[in-house]
Amino acid sequence: MMKIIIRTIYFLIFYTTTVLGQIEHVPLVTDRPDQTESAVIVPYNTFQIETGFIYQIQKFSEDQIEFENENLILASTLIRYGITNELEFRFGGEYFNGKSTSSGLSRLTNGLQGFFVGSKYHLRKNEKILSDVSVILHLMLPFGHQNLKPDRIEPVLKLALSQEISEKFSLGINLGLVNNSSINVTEYYYSMAFGTSLTSKIGFFVEMYGSFHKTFLPVHNFDAGITYLHLSNLQIDFSLGTLLFKSEKDLFGGLGISFRIPK
Length: 263
Known about the structure:
Elements: H1 2-19, E1 47-62, E2 65-82, E3 87-102, E4 105-124, E5 132-140, E6 154-164, E7 169-180, E8 185-197, E9 202-212, E10 219-231, E11 234-244, E12 249-261
Antiparallel strand pairs: 1-2, 1-12, 2-3, 3-4, 4-5, 5-6, 6-7, 7-8, 8-9, 9-10, 10-11, 11-12
């Protein structure tokens, strides 16, 4: 499985280098690999594709029974299109490959999940205070594997804020909510990412994010990663993360590629 992933990414990088090797004057800004969505939209009449995979290991105990999950999320993809200078259309989904083990027994779950359609509206641009502000609306669709899809359409509302601190440093914040149909509660979540430019092509970020609702205790996570601008319209990324403040083990890592299709 890992050989297939590596070969696929190798092909994507060198194929898109040939096909997409054109100069772009608008900087490439992506919504991956961190959890914090950018407050910037893609240019008008432009497609941007962001995709990758995540490998995750979880270990925890419940009622003195040990559980272990090994998950591989493939083709976690976001497709963005600039409808106007202030509005973009968004569509996404992914393929889940998971193995759960407890008491010596294993169960496999494989299928599509996380399908959504939505939009991002750019409310505020290039200001000194709150440099950029956008509102993101997604509709999570009841499509995919029976055990992975939501019970019904779930609206997701998110406020994306960004602040340019200097030419090299920036801060991004997301605040949002979603109606979780599986337990019929409103779930609130946040994320905050601090990013810096190490060189003209290499970026680095650290991030904290989490979620909470009235039924369970809050969940907090930390991740960090690197982005590499291979071309003006092609970016490669790598990230690692973990669960915070809990005894459970939850480690994950991801690798991805983002590119804008020239007009």
